[in-house]
Amino acid sequence: MNKFEQFPDYQVPGVQHHDFSPYESNGGSIVAIAGEDFAVIAADTRLSSGYNIHTRTQNKLFKLSENSVLGSTGCWSDTLSLTGLLKVRMQMYEHTHLKVMSTDALAQMLSITMYNRRFFPYYVSNILAGVDKDGKGVVYSYDPIGHCERATYRAGGTAGPLLQPVLDNQIGYKNQNLSQDELPKLSIDRAVAVAFDTFISAAERDIYTGDSVIINIITKDEIKSQELPLRKD
Amino acid sequence: MLNNYQSSGYPLWSNGPTPGGFYNFTGGQQTHKLPSELVTEGPYGTKRNTSSITTGSSVLGIRFDEGVMIAADTLVSYGSLARYQDIHRVFKINNNIILGGSGDFADIQSIKRNIDQKMIEDQYYDDQITMKPKELSSWLTRVLYGRRSRMNPLYIDVVVGGVDKQGVPFLGNVDLRGRAYEDYVVATGFARHLALPLVRERKPADRDFTAQEASDLIRKCMEVLYYRDTRNMSKYTVGVCTTSNCLVEGPYNVNENWTFAANIKGY
Amino acid sequence: MFRNQYDSDVTVWSPQGRLHQVEYAMEAVKLGTATVGLKNKSHAVLVALCKPLSELSASQRKIIPIDDHLGISIAGITADARVLSKWLRSECLNYKHSYESIYPISRLITNLGNKMQTTTQRYDRRPFGVGLLVAGYDENGPHIYQVVPSANYINCKAMSIGSRSQSARTYLERHLSSFNDCTTDEIICHGINAIRGSLSNDELITKTENLSQLNITIAIVGENYNKFTILTDEETNKYLEMANNSNSLDDQRKPTEVVGTSGSDDDPKPGPSDSDPQVAVGTME
Q1: pTM for the full predicted model
Q2: Nearest-CA neighbor of C25 among C117, C143, C109, C135?
Q3: Nearest residue of B to residue A1 by CA position?
Q4: Domain ranges (residues) in chain A
């Protein structure tokens, strides 16, 4: 068969050739911490690609129900598409089952929704925080193809590897030779303070994290939101 | 020959495997396939071209207290050739939306035709309901994301602006992957590097821009873009959308000043 | 039951220019329990009477939420309503997914009308045997629409459909001028008082005395992000109480006076006089 390449005369002049990649990293970090009767989740507000900062005010926390918030970073177009799909499926659940999806049900659905695209994944780092049916704080973290893991604290996104060890130390008290009953009980104030502090440090080293951080504090009664400025360079 | 069922031209049955054929049944690992319109070869093995050919350069949008402004020059290039020099790239979509398009101009025209058709649909319902800028931006996200997911993207980067029913201004950007965000300043192409910092630098922390400030900034930025972006020219149009009016103004010319050229020595 | 030789198929006209099958479908609406829809400046309200099918069964769901900004109340074949509500829900979801905004009520109903019309023009279909009252709120304010099996849809200020709904309509007509400036509490009470008229006389006596036996569902949607919500039993009882008090102050008919008006609507047999499409109460221009 004659191939196009064999006819160089037919090359169109002036054509810009692109190798199209469907993915793009738009940066951003998430930290989520679960307490006994609350969960906090924080994400920065910088949306960038490469050295461009598209906006400094992009909220990456999606309130999916009255007691669960999803933090999603990575390829922003995938994030938009995934959260759009989640909202649709949650409303369908609400109509068929006549109740709002619980955080645990949502966690499972998010997992299968992501795995549905196993061979063309959503390039996103998701962390779902909320309170479960009993009012207990929960955090679920995901990989891009839908692996779901329940945790008590988790960092994700571009500064995830930077922040996770800090949480291990400050929230998990790893390798501090404390016995189980010596571990201090985590308060909302401390969880919020640690979450903010991790972002202040992440903004120092990760160029994709900065501008400001939005934190959502989820209890069984309400979701409160706070914002803290970060460095903008 | 008579027993050769395949030569008869008619399959023994439809909707099923033919005896003697090779098949990939479902359940096996399927690698991602390009859509058929892209891989089907023409005579002499030609393939459909999917990259941009005629391109528009930067678009710059600024949101101010009671509306938005979107500016783009009137050049559509053919590679490095300044091919079409009087083409408007900022469009009025309806009474509350303006749209600026950069990237492949054929793709812009194609999506513009789709949008115009939607505006006609809005009109024939005759219910005084028109599309809002946020709705158009969301729709564009879905369309462009769908195309990128089929690995057949529209090579465009658009700026959508306007006001909603309450008069709240909206300014957003949607790119070829369906990435969408909104902000008080939005830029595509070289304006991202050249104009965005200029605008951000002048943003008062406690309030929005005024119309006058926005207009001055647009003029300044289009001048900088003309001097520094080789795919830019001196003529540009500006779309302005507020609650009271929505129109594309221009073309204007940037304040060219080449007196400094005489002082440049050394090459 | 057959009226004449021209009613065996929806596609067959009678020489009088009528489609008898479609008209029979309209009768199905009158078999369902009554439901009322009405609105003021800012809110649209649905009130539905939901009698259990038998002593042994739970009462039918009469009000179906479609999306955050609208819901429907049904009278007729419930199974047909399920098909329609499924379609409406998916339309709204698709719209919301594409545009991140709500489906304008008027457009949704126009498209629903178009979908329902096809069933009245094909030999292999039958018209939907259900009437809908749609209550919704969009950028143009609150809306009440009536949709009937003939695929006609009517923009209403207030409307009632279902068995014995004529007396509810009479009530609505009488109070129509006051609705626009009512508070939301008042408009709900008007809805309850209207639907009370559709009760048979003996029911009216027993159930006026014992409020909790009046098995109704109330739904409301309106401005300030008031999503379409079906009221809880406690809230419903609160409004029943409220309606009962306003009722005694008002110029209400005593239960015994109802006989004359509701009696004519009692007969479910289709008579030529009431087979025409019900004319809306105070339709919008």
Answers
A1: 0.85
A2: C117
A3: B45
A4: 29-47+54-228
